[in-house]
């Protein structure tokens, strides 16, 4: 931008009161000035001689040799040399004369300034301002579309601009950020570091809410002075850098996670805390299971596939007196029939001919002092059912090919998604075993009946999977959430977790989008012709009811009171929104 100095026309000739008319005329002509500043012997300004002075002298028939003294104007419009540039517009508006004389602090003439110069300069300035405006707009557009979080601060460390992803990441509103001190709004970024160092800091690591970010702090310098700073937050992890690297990193994270899990697999790793739920029925079920865990009885866990039956079994083991013992899993459906017996009871040395002559411990041996989890118990053959029953009754067994009775102290937790009662009727499951197993029965409801849980599980899995996958997903777009909430979840929580993992792997801008969901889900939801869409108001009402019910753990009287409606009113709403009763 122009400076005041650049506008001034320097005065390099000396005109005094004794200067003659002829000299003044030729100076004005050659310089094309409208006035000549007149100075005394100390070079101080004493007046100006203008074109009207020439006309007056000619009208008065003064000879060309006449000194200009008595035609000089003593009242002069002056401008101090240190006039701020910003004041020029005012001066142009208010000055009664077309040309001003610029003086220094000693009243010496420095130059002259014409109105035309000023207007030209203002025009140029406004042009520059326009350019700056365009630049600012361009910058804002660039920021709006920036993939990373970007914040710009000025000399006073106040926030000037901020990119939408950064607002989203820290859950901030523009009005609570702009013009505010960065150290108040985003203290964790430590952007003030660069004001002292005046050097860029690249790739500083930062961890907020368990998510890692890479922070670049870049000072904005002018003449070596820090006049602002830019903070860049790469929070979409290193995925940005390369898709391949991202996939590799995720695969590595996953491998190491599962490796750890594998190492832990001989013992149960889940406790009640890992069993996420806000559903009142599930909460009650957790409580009953925790109570049952303390006893010795056999527990049968029923429920569809993926509802968390094994999770319950592990949590039961971990909260039981046997938690220091092993938690051994046998998937009755996955082991070939002819191997199942030896898997259960082991075999003695020499029981089989072949390579493995040395004998092998069975699952009952391994689970001694701990818990044996019999998954898919409904898939066990009738002959094995008989053997299992004997162990349960007598608490002892023989190894395959063995003759020694082995006594064990094992607690059985069994699970199935099959209808055992029907199987008993059809003669496919032994009635006596059924009663033996069904001492305490826990029915884990499918996810579609746990309306409040889907939302809760989404956020819990997001936190968990961010750590496992090394992603920084912080939210889910409304449309995607709607599909998730409307989907029927035949695979229950396992399916939800898998869908979340897949979506978080594909998500690109910190949020799970509609297109990150598997196609079959989107299709199923749109084909089901969703129950008439609820309006915004109804949606708010539904949310309030759900919240109240969760808060009071399903107690309708308390929920109605909390909502300020009658009990029958609440029942009507529950029916209307198809909430579980
Ligand atoms: N309430 C829950 N909170 C957190 N994770 C859950 C929950 N329920 C299930 N899961 C997760 O879902 C997956 C399936 O759970 P689990 O294996 O316990 O189900 P299951 O009912 O035993 O299934 P299946 O009948 O197919 O053996 C696991 O990854 C488990 O961690």
Structure description:
The chain is an alpha/beta fold and 581 residues long. The protein has 4 domains: 4-121, CBS-domain; 146-235, 2-Layer Sandwich (Beta-Lactamase), CATH 3.30.450; 266-443, P-loop containing nucleotide triphosphate hydrolases (Rossmann fold); 447-576, Helicase, Ruva Protein, domain 3, CATH 1.10.8.60. Helix content is 43%, strand content 17%. The chain is built from 23 helices and 20 strands. The strands form 6 sheets. The protein has a 5-stranded antiparallel beta sheet with strand order 8-7-11-10-9. The chain has a 5-stranded parallel beta sheet with strand order 13-14-17-12-18. Strand 15 and strand 16 (405-407) form a beta hairpin. Helix 10 crosses helix 11 (309-318). The longest helix has 30 residues, at 115-144. The protein starts with a helix and ends in a 5-residue tail after the last helix. Adenosine-5'-triphosphate (ATP) binds next to helix 11 and helix 19.
- Give the CATH topology of the largest domain: Rossmann fold
Average of pLDDT: 83
β content, as a range? 15-25%
| Uncertain ranges | 238-242, 528-532
Instruction: Give the C-level CATH assignment of the largest domain.
Output: Alpha Beta
Give the helix/strand class: alpha/beta
Q: What ions, cofactors and ligands are bound?
A: adenosine-5'-triphosphate
CATH architecture of the largest domain: 3-Layer(aba) Sandwich
Give the overall shape, derived from the CA principal axes: rod-shaped
What is the count of distinct domains? Answer: 4
Distance between the termini: 72 Å
| Helix share, percent | 40-55%
Q: Order of strands across the widest beta sheet?
A: 8-7-11-10-9
Number of DSSP helices? Answer: 23
By CATH, the superfamily of the largest domain comes out as P-loop containing nucleotide triphosphate hydrolases
């Amino acid at each position: 931008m122009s400076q005041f100095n650049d506008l001034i026309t320097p005065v390099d000739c000396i005109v005094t009161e004794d200067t003659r008319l002829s000299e003044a005329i030729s100076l004005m002509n050659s310089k094309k000035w409208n006035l000549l500043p007149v100075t005394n012997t100390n070079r101080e300004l004493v007046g100006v001689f203008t074109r009207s002075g020439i006309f007056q002298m000619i009208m008065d028939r003064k000879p060309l040799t006449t000194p200009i003294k008595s035609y000089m104007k003593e009242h002069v419009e002056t401008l101090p040399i240190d006039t701020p540039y910003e004041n020029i517009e005012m001066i142009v508006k208010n000055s009664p004369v077309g040309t001003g004389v610029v003086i220094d602090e000693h009243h010496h003439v420095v130059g002259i300034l014409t109105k035309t110069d000023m207007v030209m300069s203002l025009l140029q300035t406004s042009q520059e301002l326009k350019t700056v405006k365009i630049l600012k707009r361009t910058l804002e557009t660039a920021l709006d579309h920036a993939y990373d979080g970007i914040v710009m601060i000025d000399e006073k460390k106040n926030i000037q601009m901020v990119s939408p992803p950064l607002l989203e990441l820290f859950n901030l509103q523009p009005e609570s950020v702009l013009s505010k001190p960065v150290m108040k709004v985003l203290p964790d970024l430590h952007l003030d570091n660069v004001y002292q160092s005046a050097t860029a800091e690249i790739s500083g690591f930062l961890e907020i809410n368990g998510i890692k970010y890479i922070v670049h702090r870049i000072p904005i310098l002018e003449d070596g002075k820090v006049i602002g700073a830019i903070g860049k937050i790469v929070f979409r992890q290193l995925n940005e850098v390369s898709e391949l690297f991202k996939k590799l990193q995720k695969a590595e994270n996953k491998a190491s996670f599962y490796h750890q899990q594998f190492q832990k697999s001989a013992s149960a790793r889940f406790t009640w805390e890992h069993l996420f739920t806000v559903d009142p029925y599930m909460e009650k079920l957790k409580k009953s299971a925790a109570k049952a865990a303390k006893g010795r009885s056999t527990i049968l866990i029923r429920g569809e596939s993926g509802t968390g039956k094994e999770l319950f079994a592990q949590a039961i083991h971990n909260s039981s007196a046997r938690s220091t013992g092993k938690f051994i899993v046998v998937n009755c459906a996955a082991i070939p029939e002819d191997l199942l017996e030896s898997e259960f009871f082991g075999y003695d040395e020499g029981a089989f001919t072949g390579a493995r002559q040395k004998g092998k411990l069975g699952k009952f041996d391994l689970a001694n002092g701990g818990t044996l989890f019999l998954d898919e118990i409904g898939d066990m053959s009738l002959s094995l059912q008989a053997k299992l029953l004997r162990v349960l009754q007598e608490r002892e067994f023989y190894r395959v090919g063995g003759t020694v009775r082995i006594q064990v102290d094992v607690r059985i937790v069994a699970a199935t998604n099959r209808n055992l009662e029907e199987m008993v009727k059809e003669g496919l499951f032994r009635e006596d075993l059924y009663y033996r197993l069904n001492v305490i029965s826990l029915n884990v409801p499918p996810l579609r009946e746990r309306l409040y849980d889907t939302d809760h599980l989404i956020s819990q899995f997001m936190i968990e999977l961010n750590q496992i996958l090394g992603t920084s997903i912080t939210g889910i777009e409304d449309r995607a959430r709607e599909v998730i909430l409307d989907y029927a979840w035949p695979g229950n929580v396992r399916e939800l977790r898998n869908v979340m993992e897949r979506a978080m792997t594909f998500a690109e801008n910190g949020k799970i989008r509609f297109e990150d969901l598997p196609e079959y889900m989107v299709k199923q939801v749109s084909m089901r012709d969703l129950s008439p869409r609820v309006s915004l108001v109804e949606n708010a009402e539904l949310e309030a009811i759900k919240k109240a019910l969760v808060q009071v753990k399903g107690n309708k009287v308390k929920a109605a009171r909390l909502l300020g409606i009658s009990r029958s009113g609440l029942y009507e709403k529950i029916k209307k929104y198809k909430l579980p009763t």
